[in-house]
Amino acid sequence: MHRRQKLTINGITQWRSFDSIQDLVDMVAAAVKAEKQPKSDILFGDYMEDWYHRYKERDLNPDTREGYKSIMKVHINPVIGQIPISDITVADVQKVMDGLKSASYAKQTKSIINLVMNAAIADELYHHPNPTKDARIIMPTAVKKREPVDGDDMRIIIDTLPNMKAEQAKLLVMLIMTGCRRGEALGTRWEDIDWATKTIHLQRVVRFRHNRPDVSEKMKSRAANRTVSLWDDFIPYLGERQESGYIINSNGEPLSETQYRRRWNALIKVLQRAGVENRFTAHQLRHSYATVAANSGNIPPKVLQGMLGHANFQTTMNIYADFDGEKIREGSHGLSEEYARFTDKSCR
Prior knowledge:
Layout lengths: L2 E7 L2 E7 L2 H16 L7 H13 L5 H19 L9 H9 L7 H17 L28 H10 L5 H13 L3 H6 L5 E2 L4 E4 L2 E5 L2 E5 L9 E4 L27 H18 L7 H15 L4 H8 L4 H8 L4 H23 L1
Antiparallel strand pairs: 1-2, 3-4, 4-7, 5-6
């Protein structure tokens, strides 16, 4: 159980949290020692960048690398990047947490700061307890819900497919009928399709590096390498069958980030003119695929996990198996009928 004590050390009064008297003694000794140490003028952002390239980058897969770099650039550097590493406080860490709009990145953001501060302590650039360990830090709790495409909008999308340009329709149906991630759709080749079984093997991904497409067979996880079924009604939108090459392409090559965004923005405009009210992302179509599958009641959760390529079963359950109220009511009603039959048999 945490206890708190107001301490005055070297003329500075502040509250400190501790678990035992020995912790308190060690804390006071560390604080006194810290005041005698020369302060470093190395900025937190510079040290974090060096730490990342020197110790962390090589251990991360490509998707996780992008996540780390995004968090450091967007959420950490703008808040505490210009503060000397030796001056970082609990309040600075809290300020980073306060700048996060949801809990989605909070745990990883705090973890990165924690690793950087541990490294700084090891390098004797920081002489206080790691501020990320302080019990006072309040983590954001709001969770940004990932919404699937609205049902009415989905009907308009499907009805509009025959009137769209071939390349726009092809991109949409790849996402709608497979539930794949954007990079997986862009990395799929014609030779990945087994026409006899009407299935498609998702086994490579396109990631963008400075606008250029980077094709890799290193998927997000082992589970992401999977085979899913094609839908008969959507197969014609893939266009004329080819022996090889990228299904979604520009002059035979994978799309660059700019080309992808132009194609996506163009198809969104077509759909908005057709009556689609809410702009959506490729990932929201993946959520739609998952929601339709989950709400069908015909697909066991473990099968859905495989279809979506989730490495963690809890991800499938937490994010995608969000049954609507009507399905819950139907399930409850069905269960009550089963109990009624059981009771009748027992009475007889």
